[in-house]
Design goal:
This protein is an alpha+beta fold and about 240 residues long. It has a domain of about 120 residues: Ferric Hydroxamate Uptake Protein, Chain A, domain 1 (Beta Complex), CATH 2.170.130. Helices cover about 25% and strands about 20% of the residues. The strands form three sheets. Strands 2, 3, 6, 7, 10, 11 and 12 form a seven-stranded mixed sheet that branches. The chain has a three-stranded antiparallel sheet with strand order 1-5-4, with no helix packed on it.
């Protein structure tokens, strides 16, 4: 109530602008706005995301790691294996038929034999330098030319060894049997005749022929037959 004599303040009515009237809260009614109701849900999501990150961090921390000592042991083992490989790995030409390839000729046990191969009545050359690996080494059995002379040059420790024609073919890298001589094979009505020092050896496996000083071996594919088989005149220096 205004005091008597006080001037009245005019009240103007503005259309379209409602007066601010706060409604009276009703019992049992949640008047919280939708925006305010969403906030707890957002906080819950953030909390769940934080828990997920903490869980992932704990999981990653459980990945087993090798102790520094174990890593050092593994490195030492790897280094040892590498050292053994590079220091014990064979270098250069390998043994063939238990015959070495030496850097120099062996002269303690030194002699010569001869091989002739006949095919279609013609002599087939044995390749020169068979058993000689460039300037690197020479096997104890080798050739120097195409004459068919096989040089047996071994250390004294091999003086009692029986070197065979099969050993030479192994160094040559060619097969030798009753039906094949290097790349030549018995076909059709052919036969392989084996002569040792001019004598026919009908049941002889040519790979088993023992080569002695001046032994002469003829391996002849027939027909045709070359009779008598050829012989080789050894030079005086052989």
């Amino acid at each position: 109530m205004l005091a008597e004599g006080s001037p009245r303040q005019p009240v103007f009515y503005q259309p379209g602008r409602p007066t601010s009237v706060r409604p009276t809260p009703q019992p049992g009614r949640d008047d919280t706005s939708k925006t305010k109701r969403k906030q707890p849900a957002g906080r819950d999501a953030a909390a769940r995301a934080g828990q997920h990150r903490r869980h992932a961090s704990r999981s990653s921390s459980r990945i087993p790691l090798l102790p520094a000592g174990a890593v050092a042991v593994l490195l030492v083992l790897c280094a040892g294996v590498a050292y053994l490989y590079f220091t014990t790995a064979p270098s250069g030409p390998q043994k063939v038929a238990n015959i070495n390839c030496d850097a120099t000729e062996q002269v303690a046990h030194h002699y010569h034999a001869h091989l002739s191969i006949l095919y279609n009545g013609n002599e087939v050359n044995v390749p020169a330098n068979t058993g000689i690996v460039g300037s690197t080494c020479l096997y104890w059995m080798h050739t120097h030319d195409t004459t068919g002379v096989i040089h047996i040059e071994a250390p004294q420790s091999q003086a009692n060894r029986a070197f065979t024609l099969g050993d030479f073919f192994a160094i040559w890298g060619q097969p030798l049997s009753r039906t094949q001589v290097a790349t030549l094979k018995v076909t059709g009505d052919q036969k392989l005749l084996v002569y040792v020092d001019g004598t026919l050896q009908p049941d002889q496996d040519p790979s088993k022929i023992v080569l002695k000083s001046h032994t002469q071996v003829v391996l002849e594919f027939t027909p045709p037959t070359v009779d008598p088989p050829p012989t080789y005149p050894f030079p005086a220096n052989l």
